Amino acid sequence: MLILIAVFAVRARAGEHPVPLEKNTDAAKCLECHEDKTKAPHVHTAISMGCTTCHEVKVVDKDTTNVDLISPSEELCFTCHEKSKAASLHGPYDKGGCVICHDPHVSDFDKQLRAEGNKLCLECHQERRTTGAVALFKTAHEFAQDEFQAIPKINLDPTLRLGHPMGTHRVADDPNPLKPGEKISCLTCHENHSSERDKLVRMTEYKGKKVDVCDACHLTRDEAAMALAQKTTDEQVAQREKEQKTLGKQSIEMPQRTPGPANKKP
Ligand code: HEC
Ligand code: HEC
Ligand code: HEC
Ligand code: HEC
Ligand code: HEC
Ligand code: HEC
Ligand code: HEC
After folding, report:
1. Nearest CA among 105, 85, 102 for reference residue 45
2. Phi, psi of 234 (to 5 degrees)
3. Among 20, 71, 195, 260, whose Cα sits 20 to 30 Å from the Cα of 246?
């Protein structure tokens, strides 16, 4: 534990570059030693603008070079990405903590995220035992113990698939009717950065109308279930008609159309 803290302290110290650099070191030179910052499944577009777009090289003397960010970390990303003006902002986004969730350079995951799917959100929102500071995503970004505990936690079952926002509601694995082929996740119901609604709950469209995501999904599901029931009924009717025909014309009774399912309100 002590060793870890020491490492963080060193990593967190801004400024002195471990290797002295020439005054006009260009971005190509950086890559001689830092090629890894440009190669991964997902590379930040800004990397193609060169390292010195975000890092400033200051030669102090022959033996000392400082490499600092061109603006404080919590402001840097906003120099190119406009801050959302929505009513409700997610805490770490509001504070400019972009690099907690996104790697500024490269990542194995889409949008340079530090983890995939629900894992990203549960890093902060899942209850866990902590002793001392918590290093999020195993990076140098630490939350003090009380700061970490103050983040609202949700209560999922041990498989992390259900139990939120109520009862046995699914948060994973079930198909997402709103995005065929995808599964339900935290981001099905929540926005990641900001929203007009409380608790980052998403608004979405259902038949051209703005509704909240709960209604959109439940109405779509009911509709699909109803369509399926109707299809089954139609097939049964067609089958019966066929049987009647083969029985010959002696049958006077017309096949009765079985009633469709009751028009369930969601
Ligand atoms: C001669 C090799 C070399 C060159 C050239 C070089 N670096 Fe580094 N740099 C290193 C090494 C080694 C480290 C320490 C290990 C690490 O963090 O990757 C480092 C660390 C860093 C760090 C982290 C510093 C810290 O305080 O922890 C930054 C930021 C950085 N380099 C930026 C740059 C930029 C920007 C350039 C080009 C202007 C550059 N480097 C050129 C070798 C080099
Ligand atoms: C879009 C802005 C941006 C660009 C472009 C950029 N960096 Fe960074 N870099 C950052 C930020 C922000 C941090 C601090 C990350 C953190 O706190 O987690 C950082 C940290 C680093 C570090 C130390 C921590 C680490 O992730 O290893 C190194 C080394 C580094 N950058 C090298 C480079 C090199 C080399 C390039 C060019 C290939 C480059 N950066 C381009 C924003 C940028
Ligand atoms: C110098 C300008 C610049 C800076 C500074 C910058 N970005 Fe970007 N970023 C871009 C551009 C250009 C794109 C590609 C166009 C777009 O998607 O908006 C991009 C795209 C992204 C994407 C979307 C990637 C994708 O796959 O769609 C993420 C995430 C991102 N940036 C995060 C950050 C974070 C975090 C920071 C601060 C560390 C940052 N950016 C700072 C210019 C910048
Ligand atoms: C709590 C984690 C978290 C924080 C903090 C965060 N993001 Fe994101 N961001 C995400 C997730 C998750 C996505 C992907 C959303 C999706 O796929 O629908 C994303 C997507 C993006 C994208 C691409 C899509 C878009 O909205 O244009 C950009 C650019 C971006 N983030 C920039 C930023 C910047 C800049 C900051 C800091 C001001 C930031 N993010 C802070 C989680 C975060
Ligand atoms: C770095 C830690 C961190 C990560 C990762 C994170 N959150 Fe949060 N989240 C917070 C903090 C801190 C708050 C409390 C501040 C606030 O209300 O926004 C919060 C609040 C929330 C709230 C309640 C907002 C409100 O208005 O009360 C929701 C919902 C939420 N997060 C969803 C998510 C989702 C979805 C993800 C994944 C995309 C995620 N969080 C990832 C730190 C995090
Ligand atoms: C089916 C929709 C749905 C899904 C999926 C979902 N949430 Fe929520 N979440 C909600 C709603 C609705 C609320 C607001 C509940 C309330 O106000 O009592 C909420 C509230 C929250 C809060 C705030 C809790 C508080 O005490 O303030 C957090 C944090 C949160 N969700 C995180 C997550 C994370 C992380 C995931 C993924 C593991 C997730 N949610 C998945 C609907 C959902
Ligand atoms: C992506 C689709 C989807 C979204 C979005 C969604 N649900 Fe559900 N919901 C389901 C599924 C699937 C079930 C399980 C239904 C079943 O077993 O037939 C369910 C079940 C329920 C149940 C039954 C009780 C239970 O715990 O299983 C309630 C109540 C409910 N949802 C409310 C909500 C609310 C409130 C929201 C918005 C915060 C919401 N749902 C958002 C898909 C969704």
Report:
1. 105
2. -60, -40
3. 260
Closest residue CA from atom 34 of ligand 4: 98
8 A C-beta contact, residue 67 and residue 54: no
Domain range summary for the chain, segments of one domain joined by +: 1-70, 215-266
Helix (H, G, I), strand (E, B) or coil at 147: helix
C-alpha 213/C-alpha 219 separation (Å) is 10
Q: Which residues of the chain have a pLDDT value below 70?
A: 1-14, 248-266
Res 253: pLDDT: 53
> Whose structure tokens read 């926005």?
191
E strand residue ranges, 139-231: 142-143, 194-195, 203-206, 209-212
Atom 8 in ligand 6: which residue has the minimum CA distance?
A: 165
Query: Would the CB of 216 count as within 6 Å of ligand 6?
Result: no
